[in-house]
Amino acid sequence: MTPLELVGSLGIVGYGLGAIGPGIGVGLIFAAVIEGTARQPEARGAMLSTAFIGFALTEALAIIGIALAFVFGFVGQ
Amino acid sequence: MTAWSGFAGLMPLEGYEPPGVESFDLPPLIPGQEWANKYLLQAVVSVVLIMAFWLVMSRKRALVPSKGQFLGESAYMFVRNSIARDTIGHDFKKWVPLLIALFSFVLVNNLWGVFPLTLMPTAAHVGWAYGLAGLVWLIYNGIGIKKFGPIGYLKHATMPPGVPGPMLIIVAPLEFLSNIIVRPATLSLRLFANMFAGHLLVLVFVLGGEYLLLHSEPVFNKVAGVASLIFSLAIFGLEIFVQSLQAYIFTMLTAQYISSATAEEH
């Protein structure tokens, strides 16, 4: 007897779990940008440039998650 | 009791086909030509509209601008200042046409998703996102190779300054992967996933609301259907925001990649 049988997309569950980290990470990046702009408004341009580099790297993990959820994520028949 | 029977039993709704990946397979407009579908029509119309807009904007040159000229100049200044100048630095002017074109194209094609006659963002078909990101990849690698030479550009992209020797063995392959392999993938998939997921969200609320309202019996279901349809208007508002933001992020990241490919070593 199988107590619990999952059929369908396990990948989406995996993506949901995997999006916790990048979500927090991107929030931290832009929290730092907001605080830095509050301290020194004229540094906003340079800070935003660095923020976007960091954002692209952090969000890459979430994007890999959603892509692989579609490719590998289906279980059952 | 029939009014509440649907709620009490929570029966699966027969005859309801939830929206999925197949909702994005659009039929060809010319029978037999599979490539001539609505996505292509939207992209072509968007190019015509964008060219007409910028040509008209560049023609008016009054010193005291009218409202239309002010609108066009604000749009142009937004991309030129906050995206090109602040990101690329001192020789940013030659990149402004590319960034204006990319921003306009991505924005208009995203906004087709909330335009009443089309209701499908072009980038929800992944090929369009791949094409745009592939173009950006060719541009930033090409400009780096042109400036530093192939070996020099590889060294510039994979070995950041200030990393001690033995660490380079780990850092260099990771940087290569991150800068040259992962960047076009994430650039395209970010745009595609945002458009795909957003449009799917709209479809869930609208199709589910329509089914609940018109094709199921209990009164509770019909009320839930009306609520779902009303909420889908809020989702459309969210979609306008996300589409504009994704166009901005795409253009900003393009400027960022160009800037870091041509950055001078201090």
TrEMBL record, chain A:
PROSITE patterns: ATPASE_C
UniProt keyword list: ATP synthesis, Cell membrane, CF(0), Hydrogen ion transport, Ion transport, Lipid-binding, Membrane, Transmembrane, Transmembrane helix, Transport
Mode of membrane association: Multi-pass membrane protein
Compartment list: Cell membrane; Membrane
Record flagged with keyword Acyltransferase: no
One Gene Ontology term of the molecular function aspect: proton-transporting ATP synthase activity, rotational mechanism
Membrane spanning stretches: 12-34, 46-75
Protein family: Belongs to the ATPase C chain family.
Biological function: F(1)F(0) ATP synthase produces ATP from ADP in the presence of a proton or sodium gradient. F-type ATPases consist of two structural domains, F(1) containing the extramembraneous catalytic core and F(0) containing the membrane proton channel, linked together by a central stalk and a peripheral stalk. During catalysis, ATP synthesis in the catalytic domain of F(1) is coupled via a rotary mechanism of the central stalk subunits to proton translocation. Key component of the F(0) channel; it plays a direct role in translocation across the membrane. A homomeric c-ring of between 10-14 subunits forms the central stalk rotor element with the F(1) delta and epsilon subunits.
Name used for this protein in its record: ATP synthase subunit c
Gene: atpE
